[in-house]
Structures are given as C-alpha cells and as structure tokens.
Design goal:
Rossmann fold; D-amino Acid Aminotransferase, Chain A, domain 1; 3 domains; four-stranded antiparallel β-sheet; globular
Length: 304
C-alpha cells in the first residue's frame, strides 16, 4: 500500500478493509520502497500493524524487521497509479512471489496484463466508440466523426489528465499537447449521461456489491471522481446490468482480481479499476467486513 502516514483514514478503502481484517488475521505493513530481491527470494521490511480509529487516524506500527515475503499467507498489492516504471518494477517483483505460490491480490500477473481503461471497454456489453493511439491525425479524424470526445492518459487515476475536446479552432492544439505529454492516449466519444453522474460498482471475490456509489461531477465539470470534488449518493445496481456484471465478476475472479471497481456511465463500462479501487467507506453497508470475510475465505481455499 502507499505510505500509511499520507493516507486519509476516513476515506481510504484499504485501511477500512484492514481494520475489519485485523480481528481475523495478523496484519503486517510492508514498508514502502523496502522491497528487494536476491537471486532466490523477495524481501522487505515489515511492521505489525494495528488500526485503532479511522476517524482519529490512530494506528500503531511495531516490531519492524526484515522478512522473506513468501512467508506471508497473503499480500494485498494496493499501490496507487501512475503505472510507471517504478510501479511495473514492483509488480515484477511481486509476480515472482506469485510464481513461488504466495497468494498476491490483486494478481501482479493480471495487473501487468490488463489496462484498467481498456479492460472496461473490452468487457462492456454496450461498446463505446474508442481508439487507443499516439497518432494525432487519427484522433483528429475520430473527433470529426463524433463532434465531442474525451482524451484519457492510459495509466493515471482519479480523473487526472482527462479532458473534453470539441470541434473548434483550439482542438488541434489540445490534441497535440495531450499526445506530446502522454505519448499514447485513449480517445472516446463523449457521453452526455455523465452530467447525471457515473456509477462505481464494487466487485470482490466474484461478488457484486448491490449498493452502488453514484458520483456526480461538480458544477461546470464532467469528471465525477470524488477526488475531483464530485458529490455522491448511494443507489442500487440496476437489474438490467446484472447479467453483464456477473460475466465481469467471473472474468475478474478467474484472473485472480479479488477487488475491483467497475465504473459505468449510462449503459457503458468505461473503466474497471483493478489497481486501488476506492468507495468502500462511502458505500458502507458493512462492506469492509464483507470483503475481509471473503479475503479470509480466499486464503483458506488457496492453501487447502
């Protein structure tokens, strides 16, 4: 996980899950940037972690020591993007642990294999017009076809770097600047339904949480992420989406993606957050405890 001293205890999903988990298992905190390997094993500095209060951000770290990480029963890989060279290097190390039959969730193999935004497009039943390219001319042609488009960096989070482009005199320059900055980007047709918000649907261990986090963008904006200042309310998942979401849940479970956040705008799945999905504390409904219980179940099944 990210450095614990910088985490917002009243919003972070990882912390709330760990607080529910600690009554059922011993929780260790892997000190960031301490992970390293030799020719045989992966090591890191760890501390015993005890979370006392989310509202007061009270916790204890004790008994710091260096261990071979394959001695742990399960490792939660919950580091925020960007998915840059450092992130990928970390995944490659943890993938070696996975090859040594240590349970790592979400699976480093799958995190390396799937891009969150592309995966959403692939698993959406209703297909949103999308291209992935670093070619300015292709994006300009795509804009000509759809009048208004959205440009997204491949490997960022929380709505960072996402812009809306309309056909006008400044569009060519916006496209040029975005391609220059991010090299390869995703361009999608703009969806009018975003003005009414998007839906974050949590899936854990193949289970669809029926309570949905509906996020509304701030006034004058189209990015609904809470980190962007969006508001939210809790609704129920619509029945008409359940058949496709069940297929998504099965796909994720098959690929050892234990915990994911499916983002939908209207009928479209626009992203499946598999790196560090948020929303557990917003949804409530005992969700952190349900996830912790399923995690224990997953560990027992894995080693039996």
């Amino acid at each position: 996980m990210n450095p614990i001293n910088g985490i917002n205890f009243q919003k972070d999903s990882t912390i709330s899950i760990l607080k529910s988990l600690q009554s059922k298992a011993k929780v260790e905190y892997i000190v960031p940037d301490s992970v390293h390997s030799d020719s045989r094993s992966i090591y890191a500095d760890v501390c015993d972690l005890k979370i006392i209060s989310l509202s007061q951000k009270k916790y204890f770290l004790q008994r710091k020591r260096r261990i071979n990480l394959n001695k742990l029963d399960c490792i939660l890989f919950r580091i925020d993007p960007p998915v840059d060279s450092k992130y990928i290097s970390q995944l490659q190390l943890f993938r070696e642990l996975e090859y040594q039959n240590t349970l790592v969730l979400n699976s480093p193999e799958s995190l390396l294999r799937f891009n969150e935004k592309i995966l959403g497009c692939q698993l959406s039943q209703t297909k949103l017009p999308t291209i992935v390219t670093g070619d300015e001319d292709k994006i300009k042609k795509f804009l000509e076809q759809h009048d208004v488009i959205v440009l997204k960096p491949m490997n960022l989070m929380a709505g960072k770097g996402i812009i809306k482009v309309k056909k006008n005199n400044s569009s060519k320059e916006l496209i040029r600047e975005h391609v220059k900055k991010y090299k390869v980007i995703i361009a999608q047709k703009y969806i009018d339904e975003i003005t009414r918000g998007d839906n974050r649907i949590i899936i854990y261990n193949g289970i669809i949480e029926k309570n949905v986090l509906r996020r509304m963008p701030p006034k004058g904006d189209f990015i609904a992420n809470l980190a962007n200042g969006g508001s939210f309310k809790i609704t129920k998942v619509k029945k008409k989406y359940l058949i496709n979401l069940e297929k998504v849940a099965s796909f994720l479970k098959y690929h050892s993606i234990f915990f994911a956040g499916v983002d939908m705008i209207g009928d479209y799945i626009t992203e499946i957050n598999i790196t560090s999905p948020t929303g557990v504390q917003n949804i409530k409904n005992g969700l952190s405890l349900k996830i912790a219980n399923q995690l224990i179940k997953k560990i027992r099944e894995y080693y039996n």
